[in-house]
């Protein structure tokens, strides 16, 4: 029926494996927060940088850096070009979020750039192999 064998029920091979998976979950939660904070404002005016976007980008940056650190400590090669592109995009999003978080109104261009770059970062993560 497509179910995996009971071998998948064994404990994690080590603490680092568990930590890496926990960081991936937190990375996805940060992504959901950032993208969700953007998407809920599609039909809303005025648009603002909300707390979901602020906390989402912080979570994305922190967990992303920690995940790269864990990957560097392993035996598999790390694609530094991909990591660099993803980090650069995330830093630009962070600058946009923090530069606009105190403003009463977020311009449509800044709002679209935050969302567009967030989606671009997802595309890089998924399609860059």
Question: Can you walk through the features of this model?
Answer:
The protein has 129 residues and is mostly helical. It is 69% helix and 0% strand. It is elongated. The protein starts with 14 loop residues before the first helix and ends with a helix. 19% of the residues are buried. The model is unreliable at 1-5 (pLDDT under 50).
- Assess the beta-strand content as a share of residues: under 5%
Output mean pLDDT: 91
Order of helices and strands: HHHH
Query: What shape does the CA trace take?
Result: elongated
Low-confidence parts: 1-5
Number of helices: 4
What is the domain tally?
Answer: 1
The biggest beta sheet reads: none
The counted number of beta strands is: 0
Q: Cα-atom Rg, whole angstroms?
A: 17 Å
Please bin the fraction of helical residues.
55-70%
Helix vs. strand class: mainly alpha
Compute the separation of the termini in Å.
Answer: 30 Å
Provide key terms for this protein.
about 130 residues; mainly alpha; elongated; disordered N terminus
What would a concise description of this structure say?
The chain is built from four helices and no strands.
Topology diagram in text:
Elements: H1 15-39, H2 51-73, H3 80-100, H4 108-127
Helix pairs in contact: 1-2, 1-4, 2-3, 3-4
